[in-house]
Amino acid sequence: MIERVAKAGTRAVLVAVLMGMPTVLVPGYAPDAVQLILLLSLIAAVLTFVEYVGDYPSIIEFRDAPPFNRMRFLALFLTLFVLSMILRGASNPSALSQALTQAGTVLGHAMDFPYSPVRLMVLLRTEAMSAADVAMIRTSAGIAYLISLATMIAFFVTVRLLNWPIRRGAFNFWVNLPLFDPTTGGDVLYRLKRDGQVNTALGFLLPFLIPAVMKLASEVIDPISLTEPHTLIWTVSAWAFLPASLIMRGVALMRIAQLIEEKRRRAYAQADLQAI
Predict the structure, then answer these.
(1) Distance in angstroms (rounded) separating the CA atoms of residues 97 and 104
(2) Which of 73, 123, 207, 272 is exposed most, by the fewest CB atoms within 10 A?
(3) In angstroms, how far is CA 29 from the centroid of its own chain?
(4) Residue 89, CB half-sphere, CA atoms under 13 Å: how many?
(5) Is 183 exposed, middle or buried (0-12, 13-18, 19+ CB in 10 A)?
(6) pLDDT of residue 42
(7) How sure is the predictor about 274, in pLDDT bands with cuts at 50, 70 and 90?
(8) Which range is most confident: 28-37, 151-160, 184-193, 267-276?
(9) 276 band by pLDDT with thresholds 50, 70 and 90
């Protein structure tokens, strides 16, 4: 029990740090906004603690199937940290911020080719933006997209080479997929494959759809100002992280479907042998 509370508390602290990190590293928030972010960080930490301290999860999927959630958290944490340091370097330069900015600039230019997701983010520029603002968008998008790609590749390797999620023991379907209702929608195997394919396809499309939707919305409502550092950090992080998270979830669901299919095949073969 003590170990579980300690682990849940550690996760809660890490979530709070993630939520408040851009505010701490990049000054510029109004006092009221800082208080709101601190409140949101506290709420996120409490929800995380309650989720992990209990015997059974309520909303978090793959809780007992590491390193799925750890990879996603690390990707988002690293993205927010790197972007925060780059934006912080604009007013408070340091050796680390300059190195990250140079790396992001190289990556941004390398990924800024026609019809690429990075190019679509750059096309969100407005006439009021300076060349430095556009360069910052390109730099942030390039390095954030690379982190998301690296995370997906690492998860693919974990699934294929490290036999996730059964390397450490049996996979508990109902604990790791608490939101999946087995009583609706027909065969579980069919639904897992369908949901996995939908998540994967949506993950591939989102990096292209999000900038397009933002561009269309800017013609109807006041556009999001990507020249504001904190807005740029959270917008680019969401743009890079959400598609990667969906693709990872899709791959995970299809992997679970594969395990169920293999188990059914073995059960049917054994039943046939017994019938003979």
Answers:
(1) 10
(2) 272
(3) 24
(4) 19
(5) exposed
(6) 93
(7) confident
(8) 151-160
(9) low
Q: Is residue 240 within 8 Å of 143, Cβ to Cβ?
A: no
Q: Angle at CA 147, nearest 5°, toward 144 and 47?
A: 85
Where do the H-state alpha helices sit in the chain?
A: 2-25, 31-53, 68-89, 95-111, 117-122, 131-161, 173-176, 188-218, 229-275
- What's the pLDDT band for 221 if we cut at 50, 70, 90? low
List all residues 6 or more positions away from 67 whose beta carbon is below 8 Å from its beta carbon.
158
Q: Which amino acid is at 50?
A: V
Please state the rounded mean pLDDT for residues 233-252: 95
Please, are residues 120 and 211 in contact by the beta-carbon 8 Å criterion? yes
Please count the other Cβ atoms lying within 10 Å of the Cβ belonging to residue 189: 14
The model's pLDDT over 81-120, given as tens digits with 9 standing for 90+, comes to 999 999 999 888 899 999 999 999 999 999 999 999 999 9
Query: How is residue 81 written in tokens?
Result: 């940290």
Task: Return the minimum-mean-pLDDT range out of 26-30, 143-147, 159-163.
Answer: 26-30
**Hey, where are the domains in the chain?**
1-55, 65-275
Contact 230, 23 (CB under 8 A): yes
Nearest to 137 by CA among 227, 262, 38, 214: 227
Q: How far is CA 169 from the centre of its chain?
A: 26
